[in-house]
From TrEMBL:
Keywords: Aminotransferase, Antibiotic biosynthesis, Transferase. It holds the Pfam family Aminotran_1_2. One of its GO terms (molecular function) is transaminase activity. The keyword Transferase applies. One of its GO terms (biological process) is antibiotic biosynthetic process. It comes from the Bacteria. The lineage of its organism: Bacteria, Bacillati, Actinomycetota, Actinomycetes, Pseudonocardiales. This is Aspartate/methionine/tyrosine aminotransferase. Signal peptide: none annotated.
């Protein structure tokens, strides 16, 4: 197996995520307490929780959990869902199931590092850069030009991390059709779906388009429950699902039984949780806009079209890397600089940083940020 490179973002988080006083770059929406989550349970799920026995679970995932997940799709049945220990396991195993040394993949940049480095460890990969000058638009002509006869996967992530971009439904539908016409697997990371600022921009799920498409999702991001470590892939391809199950035998084998019951409760109550988290983002947005307006000479800020992260530009002469380092060491405010999103495949911006809008109570962090800037 090819050795994967250091995961820059996770190394950075290992150093700062739980030591910085103000975490202004969180990728997940605000979480809930066990009490509040259990209060959303119906009688059957509450009984399942109280009577749960802590044995092994099914590799594909708890049948009731898979049924709850399938109900969030238009065309997916419960047996077309396989669960994983978070989205990262699903991404990693899917790439290994889909790609070999003679294959080719296309991925978007900038990206969550694993979306690029895992395919690169397996085959040739071409990057297609989102355009920052057009609100991070997806160029379908660039995707089309990147395709080869041996292209097996086109990997996308919308709402996009780290930019918050969401293409139009027409563009996404055309992308799915392009992949389907050529027998390519569209691998669609949909972990921020449901947090669009305009609900009309919510995209269809890729697995509803074609049996060859894979929809990756998780309870971590939009639902704000990363501690459960429950993700899934929905896909109509039975043989591919069987390969994913066999691959999972070498990693987590099965998910934690308590997490599966709690995830089931959350997914059945997803509209309640999504509405709550959209309200948090809506309430936070004026606070961030006020902050960036005060320091307009230093920042170019555009809110996310979907999800709870975005990628503002830093205009200071010291550069974004020094800026982010000094900010966290001197003021305890954590951001993610552009170096954590550098791609081997395309040029990527060097003057950006990721900021998160999905957590309750950002005011102390924004005050510390502003005080630090005023003293510089």
């Amino acid at each position: 197996m090819t050795t994967l490179p250091e995961f820059r973002l996770e190394t950075h988080f290992s150093r700062w995520e739980f030591t910085a006083e103000h975490h202004l770059t969180a990728s997940d929406a605000e979480t809930v307490s066990m009490r509040d989550l259990l209060a959303l349970a119906d009688d059957g799920d509450r009984q399942a929780w109280e009577e749960l026995r802590l044995g092994y679970t099914e590799t594909f995932g708890d049948p009731d959990l898979r049924a709850a997940i399938a109900a969030t799709y238009e065309k997916i049945e419960p047996d077309e869902v396989i669960c994983f220990a978070g989205a990262e396991e699903g991404l990693y195993l899917a790439m290994h199931a889909l790609l070999g040394s003679g294959d080719h993949a296309v991925v978007l940049t900038p990206n969550y590092q694993a979306a690029e480095t895992v395919p690169l460890s397996l085959c040739e990969v071409t990057g297609v850069a989102l355009d920052p000058d057009r609100d991070w638009a997806l160029d379908l002509d660039a995707v089309r030009a990147a395709l080869r006869p041996n292209t097996r996967v086109v990997s996308v992530n919308f709402p996009h991390n780290p930019t918050g971009a969401v293409p139009t439904r027409e563009v996404f539908t055309e992308l799915a059709a392009l992949c389907d016409e050529r027998g390519i697997h569209l691998f669609s990371d949909e972990v921020y779906r449901g947090l669009e600022t305009d609900p009309d921009r919510t995209l269809p799920q890729a697995a509803d388009f074609s049996p060859k498409a894979l929809s990756l999702n998780v309870v971590s991001k939009s639902l704000g429950l990363p501690g459960l470590r429950i993700g899934w892939i929905a896909c109509g391809d039975r043989k591919l699902r069987a390969r994913l199950e066999r691959a999972k035998h070498y990693t987590s084998i099965c998910n934690a039984a308590p997490s599966e019951v709690l995830a089931r409760i959350a997914i059945k109550s997803r509209e309640t949780l999504l509405s709550r988290n959209r309200d948090i983002i809506t309430a936070n947005l004026p606070l961030f806009q006020e902050f960036f307006t005060e320091f307009a000479e230093l920042f170019d800020f555009r809110p996310p079209q979907g999800g709870c992260v975005c990628f503002p530009r830093y205009l200071g002469a010291d550069g974004v890397e020094s800026f982010c380092r000094d900010l966290v060491t001197e003021a305890g405010v954590l951001l993610l600089p552009a170096s954590l999103y550098v791609s081997e495949l395309t040029a990527t911006p060097t003057d950006r940083f990721r900021i998160g809008l999905g957590r309750l109570g950002p005011e102390p962090g924004l005050r510390a940020f502003a005080d630090w800037l005023r003293k510089r």
